[in-house]
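[Meeting: bench + compute handoff]

Bench side (C.D.) handed over the final construct sequence. Compute side (W.E.) agreed to return the predicted structure before the next meeting so the bench team could plan truncations. Sequence as handed over:
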Amino acid sequence: MRWLVIILLFQCLSTDGSRSHLFSFKAKKYIVVIAHRGNHTDVPENTLEAYQRAIDCGADYVEVDVRMTKDKQIIVMHNATVDKMTNGSGAIKDLGFDEIKKLRIKNQKNDGKIYLIPSFKEVLELCRGKIKIYLDFKDGDVEKAFNLIKKHEMQNDVAVYINSEKLYDEWNKIAPELPLISSIPSKVSFEEIGNFLQIKKINIVDNVYESSTVKFLHKRNIKVWLDVESDDESPEVWQKALNLNIDGLQTDHPEQLIQYLISKKLR
């Protein structure tokens, strides 16, 4: 069933040349670094502190997971409930914004600091002019989200990850200039992919692990940003991905990855 959903999503994705503004870097070969939920080695993920650390270490993008509260405010949280990350409980869609802002994020480091769930507005204010946003749009009001992006003048600094046909349709209608990120099914031939791309295209793919597929996508001006964040993330994992000639890496260790890329003259 999941494979069929991915197929249907891939068939409906589209783009045009107006979305290429996020990919103009100075270096001949420049690997984009995306800080997965911020630079959260020493602070909780998806917090302003984690995003600030991503800025400080020089990451190109920070991944931001957003959801909508009961009273239609956009906040930052990966999970659909607050149970795992905070001292509260309940689904975000059933909690009001004021309730969300009173919660405390669990501090695994016990450093005595208090961490709060940020609003999308707070994240945009922090990131503007400092770092681009890889927006993992879990759910919510697309028009409201895009209006916030425009208000903070970040419409040239956001790429959106989408995981449903409904969200694609909404983003493509309301913000057709924003680049879109998605996955492609692994058991589809080049001919089938090519047929899809004659009608519909995406800007960035995150799940390609064969160099021949990377080349195929590059010829169609589609970037490949691989997710390498995992418990066993290491230079060996990074190099394996780099050997595919990909364009970006999403990582739990942006600072170390940047230093590694510098040593390889890829930044």
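W.E. noted at the follow-up: Confidence is low (pLDDT under 50) at residues 1-18. C.D. will use this when planning the next construct.
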